[in-house]
Amino acid sequence: MTKHTFFITGISTDVGKTLVSAIITEALQADYFKPVQAGDIEHGDKEHVEKLISNAKTTIHSNAFELQTPMSPHAAATIDGIALSVNDINRPKTNNHLVVEGAGGLLVPLNETETITDLIKPTDNVIIVSRHYLGSINHTLLTVEALKQRKLTVRGIIFSGNEHPTTEHIIKKMTGLPIIGRVDDEPYVDSHVVLEYAERWRKNLQKLSS
Ligand SMILES: Nc1ncnc2c1ncn2[C@@H]1O[C@H](COP(=O)(O)OP(=O)(O)OP(=O)(O)O)[C@@H](O)[C@H]1O
Ligand SMILES: C[C@H](N)[C@H](N)CCCCCC(=O)O
Ligand SMILES: [Mg+2]
Fold first, then answer.
1. What's the CATH code of the domain at 128?
2. ipTM higher than the 0.90 cut
3. Domain count of the chain?
4. Which of 49, 118, 121, 185 has CB atoms 3.0–4.6 Å from 114's, for a disulfide?
5. Which residues constitute the domain of residue 186?
6. Is residue 203 part of a domain?
7. Are 103 and 18 in contact (CB under 8 A)?
8. In which pathway does it act (predicted)?
9. What are the two backbone dihedrals, phi and then psi, of residue 100, each rounded to the nearest 5 degrees?
């Protein structure tokens, strides 16, 4: 049986979910699963995570859906003539912790009625990646509201980008959520960089999985 599942969502696409997923996967020597990969299917998020981790315990699971076009999954699936549905996405079986990475932000459509939120289970520990850009405070607070409204379990926020004290302060204050860590804007990202962050965050993350 899976130990703990961490669902990594973000305030939008391209905010650093894959990098954060790699760091958490490495910190907990967890398994990794990306249910829906839209575009870049040869060099997708799972291939990226595989390159960034260095422990031997992690299993990188196959994507449930691989879509050819880097667009919203509902549109990418239509282009491919594929019926994409939450019902057809099964979590991989593992005895390890599992890191699940969404696609884009929370309300990204999978089809005409379902969104990424429908992939999140009540038992999942949701972690929000909040990238620093003008507009990110609003996007972060909206993300937290949407999760709370659905009574999902938000365990914390990870900031992505160089330190931004006023933004970080107000998000912490208004959400009351723990800040698990922050990834600086790194000039390059490789397995050594990921391992350094994994070591820095391990204690915080282990508290969530004990
Ligand atoms: N802290 C950072 N330092 C340097 N580069 C970063 C950082 N965070 C993200 N990036 C880069 O920004 C790009 C987008 O990040 P990433 O792929 O992690 O986004 P994502 O949120 O996973 O998007 P998607 O919705 O497609 O899954 C990547 O090229 C990644 O390497
Ligand atoms: C293709 C991209 N990298 C992500 N996988 C999907 C992002 C969808 C965003 C849709 C939207 O919010 O407008
Ligand atoms: Mg990603």
1. 3.40.50.300
2. yes
3. 1
4. 118
5. 12-21+37-162+170-197
6. no
7. no
8. Cofactor biosynthesis; biotin biosynthesis; biotin from 7,8-diaminononanoate: step 1/2
9. -110, 125
